[in-house]
Amino acid sequence: MRILAKIVSVLLPAIVIVAACSHPVNTVTQLLGSVPSDASAVFCFNTCAQGTALMLDSTDVLCRCIPQKYSRSPLVLSWCYNGNIVPLLAIQTPPDSSSALKEALRAASSLGVEAAFVSSPKALPGRGVLLLSRSESVVESSCRHLQSGASVLDAPGFRAALDKAPEAEALFFLNNRSVSKWLDSRPLTGVFRRSELVSFIRRTAEWSVLYMPDIQDSGNLSAVSSQGPSDSWYCNLLESQKPARSRMAEILPPDADFAMSLVIADTDSFREAYIRYLDASVRLNRYRNACTSLSRCSGIHPEKWEKDNQVREVGLLHRDGSSVLLVRLAKSAGRDGEQLRENPFGGFLAVLYGDAFRLDEESVMAFKDHWMVVGKAGDVESLLKCGPSPEEELWPSKPCRFAAISRMGDRSFRFFFDSDCYRLHVY
Q: Is the CB of residue 274 less than 8 Å from the CB of residue 311?
């Protein structure tokens, strides 16, 4: 399932969000009638050859069950949960392909793959669907859905997600409610806890829709999200903000493993939207209590500190096992260079912008131009000594709301949310 790492990369920091969209898609979505309503993720491809090349290894037993005659047939691959994630392939069989169908069923029987053929189901009158999976119960469930006319199309929020999907050769629908079943958090081990990622992704949107503008360039993906109008969705919070230029490239070191930035065009607008988000998600009282506690310890209320400094950008940087927080301030008066000093504002960033901006130790801070650097003394001092990054060109130069880069694991990626939608570039 080679596309998984790319999908996870998109979802990690803030999850796929908002774009101006057109209406569905292409005829392959008719095959969605074969997908069980509790599917965790659904992947649609114009051709079987495209889908199996992206989603399965060439040696996968499922690939060995697909006749050459079906290579150009539409394919929907879904992830169903049966104790573990189990892939289900639904292939629209072409007319006059009875010999190819017999070939597929024989291959499946000999290889221990569960297979079924449903002729002219409600979802595809006049057509047939070949189902393949390693799980008998998943195939049986799909047959029932095809025969009854019930499917993932009836899952909460899915039709709205389908309506948001643009025209594309490949479409991926991810159920955020089921994130705990499909999320592979290994690419960011050491930066975020898996439980934190799962909790956050569930609050971002109901469904995440990824698509490839050009399937020949599978390293470039875009994304939209689908959620109701409630302020409780983090996607709606980000969408409400104007994009602005991120300047994190100015301070990004050459050995950064992971960096992300929340860009704030207008401090007052962001604070108002964030409070609405907390209120709608029943966390406003906790936020206010935390602000009160921090103001007693520091002598200044976090919201006043934010307003006085006109915060323009908040970042997290991970390098060589260490992490620091970064804050870009509009005002820089009264700062004496890069001298390390005690940080009286520990915990401010997590309360004001979310738990992703929290470190185990935020004991010291220092200033570099308009940037405030927070963390352990050794980590802060080490960053201040770094020169310009050769990776600066990877950081988005046009206005955005959120940006991230990663060089962890076997892939590097650049990810940002601009004025239209999220963009992912995998290297």
A: no
